[in-house]
Write a structure and sequence with these properties.
With about 210 residues, the chain is mainly β. The protein has one domain: Cellobiose dehydrogenase, cytochrome domain (Immunoglobulin-like, Sandwich), CATH 2.60.40.1210. Helices cover about 10% and strands about 35% of the residues. The protein is built from 3 helices and 12 strands. Strands 1, 2, 3, 4, 8, 9 and 10 form a 7-stranded antiparallel beta sheet that branches. Strands 7-6-5-11-12 form a 5-stranded antiparallel beta sheet. Strand 3 and strand 4 form a beta hairpin. It binds protoporphyrin IX containing FE.
């Protein structure tokens, strides 16, 4: 989407001085899903597609490169917000929900949320890795995520060049991110009448909060 100055200014003021960046539409080529996306020069990206009337679910895209992990804070900051991290393990993609009350390695979070990979958009290759997923029950009303009716809000991103301690384990300890920050996500631009088609690309819901994809 194109931001008008009147949209950008209040948002910019809401974000801290170290924060920067906004989002624009990116059509992921392998799935055809149009994600409202934040892209960082590090190679990190997070995109989101929402129903026209969002409730608890979204379709997400998390992109990183190398053996490190990439993460998103669905509530903007690291502390007491629902975090999602993903990383490659061989040719598989591992993903995990995390939450922490303090700075440091966030433990896995347990809730009624689930992630299900969208196979076409979940892969590793020589230049980057990509994790496209259906996130069910992931928009919460307890303040740990953005609100379902938000038109814009601040999300957080984090990217580590170092690999998790045990890459094959979804509960692995994570080394600290090498880069992190915030940006303004346009949820209004992420709403699409094609949402049901996008969500249907995901397989059966995973019973555990992780994804494996060969
Ligand atoms: C693994 C161990 C981790 C450590 C030791 C750690 C540590 C920190 C520290 C010290 C900061 C403050 C900025 C700085 O001084 O660099 C920070 C910020 C941040 N972290 Fe982490 N972090 C970890 C994992 C994560 C994970 C897994 C995520 C997301 C999936 C995440 C997301 C963020 C975000 C979005 C910020 C910027 C916003 C804020 O300051 O709250 N972090 N982290």
């Amino acid at each position: 989407m194109r931001f008008s100055l009147s949209t950008v200014l209040p948002l910019a003021m809401a974000i801290s001085a170290s924060a920067q960046g906004t989002t624009s539409v990116y059509t992921e080529p392998k799935t055809g899903i149009a994600f409202e996306t934040y892209m960082d020069p590090t190679g990190y990206a997070f995109g989101i597609a929402l129903p026209t009337t969002p409730s608890t679910d979204f379709v997400g895209l998390l992109v990183g490169k190398g053996k490190g992990w990439a993460g998103v804070s669905l509530g903007g900051s690291m502390i007491n917000k629902l975090l999602i991290a993903a990383w490659p393990s061989g040719t598989s993609l591992i993903s995990t929900f995390r939450e922490t009350p303090r700075i440091g390695n966030p433990p896995e979070a347990n809730g009624s949320y689930t992630m299900t990979p969208i196979a076409a958009g979940t892969y590793t290759n020589a230049t980057h890795w990509s994790y496209a997923f259906l996130c069910k029950g992931c928009i919460l009303a307890d303040g740990t995520t953005f609100a379902s009716n938000a038109s814009t809000d601040v999300l957080g991103w984090a990217f580590a060049t170092a690999a998790p301690t045990m890459p094959a384990a979804h509960g692995s300890a994570l080394p600290k991110h090498s880069t992190q920050g915030n940006y303004g996500m346009s949820f209004s631009a992420a709403r699409t009448a094609k949402y049901a088609t996008y969500a249907a690309l995901a397989g059966a819901p995973a019973t555990t909060p992780r994804a494996f994809n060969a």
